[in-house]
Specification:
The protein is built from 12 helices and 6 strands. Helix 6 packs antiparallel against helix 7. Bound molecules: zinc ion (ZN).
Length: about 350
């Protein structure tokens, strides 16, 4: 029961008077946790005089789980702070100005996506090449067309993934059809990020063994295309498929282990660690796997009363932060692999330069 709900309860002798809303919420809690409580108090329903539902804010209604349409009900452990169906693009955009239970999900991917877009526009041209010349001296023109493509292709993937995710969380309250459309864009963004992450690092791992580079690029493309077929299927989007969805993406990402083990066999473990900066790939994998597990098993909200993590620190928000951290580790690995391939310099520091 939330603080506001408790405020609407009154105690008189052995009787406790609660609002209908309290009872609805308590029944949800009981259903979720499947616990029985021993209580000697008498509970009497009285008309709800503290109705926090239907709060209007610039045409946007913030409602709780009980007042949602069924298609909007996704995570039963998140009770309050939902934006009711807006049926308006402007309504969804206006919701950016108020705090609701998708606010952190929107901004946690919108801000990094803008940073990745800025890096896409300027990193290789105005930062990377100049820094290398500073290190190695003038006359070294190290970046060729393939480097330019491989580094920027990862930045495209990171930007698209985070931007589509942010749009999904912003526009999912528009209507059921728009929500389904953007959820597919969200999943496609994840597939694009996984594909571009694997391919960009493949190039540096096998830059002098182009057949293996080509072979694993083909395999990754086939896996990615298969994933696309699944995510475009409406059944994949159902809330009961949450763990299947998380497992699916983890399995696709895990296919990146194939070229790594091949690298161990061809180059040896120590050389492979330097070629693709395995330390950072390891940190990246930890972030993605932890994020997927937290998302799939709804940690931490499933262990607490619904309502405790409505606005902050729920599983989806932690998952978003894990995705951003994983992409940063991968970016670090790609740049360090590029530097190693071109100069033979291997650095374990957080910053390359
Ligand atoms: Zn999300």
């Amino acid at each position: 029961m939330s603080t506001r709900s408790r405020a609407s309860s009154a105690v008189s002798g052995n009787n406790v008077f609660v609002t209908l809303q309290d009872i609805q919420k308590e029944s949800l809690f009981s259903k979720v946790h499947k616990r029985r409580r021993n209580s000697s108090i008498t509970v009497t329903a009285v008309p709800n005089t503290f109705n926090k539902n239907n709060v209007k804010n610039n045409e946007i209604q913030i409602v709780n789980w009980d007042n949602l349409d069924e298609w909007q009900q996704d995570n039963e452990f998140i009770y309050d702070g939902y934006v009711k169906e807006t049926s308006s693009v402007m309504g969804c955009i206006k919701s950016l100005n108020i705090l609701h239970n998708e606010s952190v999900n929107i901004w946690s991917h919108l801000v990094p996506s803008v940073i990745y877009l800025a890096l896409l526009i300027g990193f290789t041209d105005f930062i990377l090449e100049k820094k290398l010349i500073q290190i190695l001296g003038a006359g070294h023109h190290l970046m060729d067309a393939m480097d330019y493509v491989m580094i920027n292709i990862f930045l495209v993937g990171a930007f698209l993934c985070l931007f589509c995710s942010s749009c999904y969380h912003c526009f999912k309250q528009h209507s059921e059809s728009v929500s389904v459309l953007w959820s597919k864009a969200d999943y496609m963004g994840i597939i694009i990020l996984i594909s571009t992450s694997i391919i960009s690092l493949l190039y540096y791992g096998f830059h002098d063994h182009l057949f293996l580079c080509k072979l694993f690029t083909i395999i990754t493309t086939i896996f990615g295309a298969t994933c696309c077929v699944f995510v475009l299927n409406d059944k994949f989007n159902h809330k009961d498929w949450k763990i299947v969805r998380a497992s699916f993406f983890v399995l696709f990402a895990a296919s990146g282990l194939l070229p790594i083990f091949t690298g161990f066999f061809v180059f040896g473990i120590e050389n492979s660690i330097k070629r693709v900066q395995l330390l950072y790939v390891f940190f990246e994998a930890i972030c993605y796997i932890a994020g997927a597990l937290i998302y799939g098993f709804k940690i931490p909200e499933c262990y607490f009363k619904p309502g405790k993590f409505d606005y902050f620190f729920n599983s989806h928000q932690i998952f978003h932060l894990c995705c951003v951290a994983g992409s940063v580790f991968h970016f670090r690995a790609v740049i360090a692999s590029f530097v190693y391939a071109k100069t033979g310099i291997h650095s374990n520091s957080v910053f390359i330069f």
